[in-house]
From TrEMBL:
SUPFAM superfamilies: Formate/glycerate dehydrogenase catalytic domain-like (SSF52283), NAD(P)-binding Rossmann-fold domains (SSF51735). Belongs to the D-isomer specific 2-hydroxyacid dehydrogenase family. This is D-2-hydroxyacid dehydrogenase family protein. It comes from the Bacteria. Residues 8-288 form the D-isomer specific 2-hydroxyacid dehydrogenase catalytic domain. Pfam families: 2-Hacid_dh, 2-Hacid_dh_C. The lineage of its organism: Bacteria, Pseudomonadati, Bacteroidota, Sphingobacteriia, Sphingobacteriales. CDD domains: PGDH_like_1.
Amino acid sequence: MSKYKIAVLDDYQEVAKSFADWTTITEYADVKVFTDHLHTEDEVVARLMPFDIICVMRERTPLPAGLLMRLPNLKLIVSTGAKNHSIDVAAAEKLKIEVQNTGYLGHGALELTWALLMAIAKHIPQENANFRAGGWQHLVGNDLKGKTLGILGLGNLGAQVAAVAKVFEMDVIAWSENLSREKAAANGARYVSKKTLFEESDYLSVHMVLSDRSKGIVGAADLALMKPTAYLINTSRGPLVDEQALIESLQKNKIAGAALDVFDKEPVDQDHPFRMLKNVLATPHIGFVTQDTYQLFFNDSVKILREWLPEHVKAAN
């Protein structure tokens, strides 16, 4: 009996096989795990050409139509998360490539948003480095109580961020193109114009879905409205913010700082300014990288494969 070939992509921490029992499918398939990331389409095609099935981690490796057309052996894509906008599903359907998705846990991004916001407000990375170097109190932290939290995008996640802000007795304001005063009020926020959102926020957190319409929704003109004491937090998607405009704003200290978990290009280049700027607190897109989420991702992936493989292997033989 011939076996299917499965590629598990972008397992950065090399943990895929520790979160699920992949031996349950070895009767039907050989599994190869890749821990590195390839950037160019030609590199990806060369690597994936032999494989029948690809397991992808979120949007780490995009699968557009042009790439899919170059993978004639591909029969199934298993993607972690309920949606993956980097897969051209319509093209996959035309090419008779099945696409299946795992479940998803959404609390990780909420938790990281507040971890980053509080860390940058209280100067925790700097104070920890100072402490390890033998120092003591070095900087003066900022308060949350009584300060204004601006939320760009008051959807499900934005509403949860607003709820936590109320615990800290913050004034919460919000704006998005489709937000109404009534919906804002129902989620504990005050509806304001986009201009006011940027002008009044002491902390401005971005929580929008990336689309053609929302790409670059935070531009140079918006950043110029912010207080020099204000912080920008983005745990949503990098391209929502004009990256070059943000870099220039931070370099010139036009805002106090930024806390970022997402970027235009991931992984970020070694010489990227965000790796150097002292007023940037950055993490490598770890909002969804949690024990419980990975447990769900990889167990669901194996479950999908366990159900799909026997039938298709039998038909192929």
